[in-house]
Amino acid sequence: MRPPNIELSGENPGEPWIFNTIGSPDYFCLLIPDPAMPREQIVAPWIKYDLTIIQPKIASTFSKNYPITLRGLHPTPVDYICPMLTPSQLEVLDSKAQCGEVIDWILTKHCPKDLLTGVLTYRHYQEAQYATQRQINALQEHHMYYLERRMEVLSALENANILGRILAHVEDFKGYPKAYATFFRAVAPFHGHITYSGTNTAIDCYMSGTITLGPPASACTPAFTPIRVPCPLPTDYTNQICILHDHTCDIRKYQNRKPTLAGPRSNKGKRCHKCHQLRHIRRECPHIKKVFRFK
User: Fold this and answer.
1) Is 236 a residue whose pLDDT tops 60?
2) How far is CA 268 from CA 24, 264, 274, 281, 285, in A?
3) Which of 8, 49, 223, 224 ranks highest by number of CB atoms within 10 Å?
């Protein structure tokens, strides 16, 4: 690991190559193969910096017409534990800080190039982060503005009974089975009123009181098996709606149902726990001796 010596090193490759002098701010300990001794390494005598902000690099060589070694340039860590910087301490590295000019002077004149490049790269990504955050804030404001306008229009559509007017013309889904299934899956939880038409906003009592919305029968059959799964929901909504529009269906079969007659209970199937005979119970058993008490 012999240190660089200008007398023992090769010829100067020319500009912008500089001699790697120990103690200089331009010094960088970069090892290259020793051309005089195989399998040995020495500190590169000639180096060249490429101080781009995003990908800084350093090139090294022994002399003119010798192989050039390239590697990325990043701050060299020290061999002891360092504390983490606090948010207030990070403000020192900001280029817009009041002490920014003095910090830049110290880094340029007294610090190695890898440390200076690290600070410049940190500032680059910090500015990119701030610019992105400003764009995000602007987009969030646009998002909230459009969301509010959308909710206003949605409220107006709900007050105008948009689904009730569309359901009044649901027979137009004939010939479109996929659209038919998708539509009824979406509007199945609808519990509002259905109008006579899209222009006549009066409530159609027949439609609103008897129609039951739900997916078609094809939606209840899994695609991976040919066996049909029974579906308890109505199957043909289009025909049902057409019948209701024509008022040819007897509405009483949907509304008027005969109530179940509830009469006195019979004891024909009962068994007496006293005499173990059928057709009566213990309270009505004829074999129980009745005792009359007289005062």
Assistant:
1) no
2) 118, 12, 16, 9, 13
3) 49
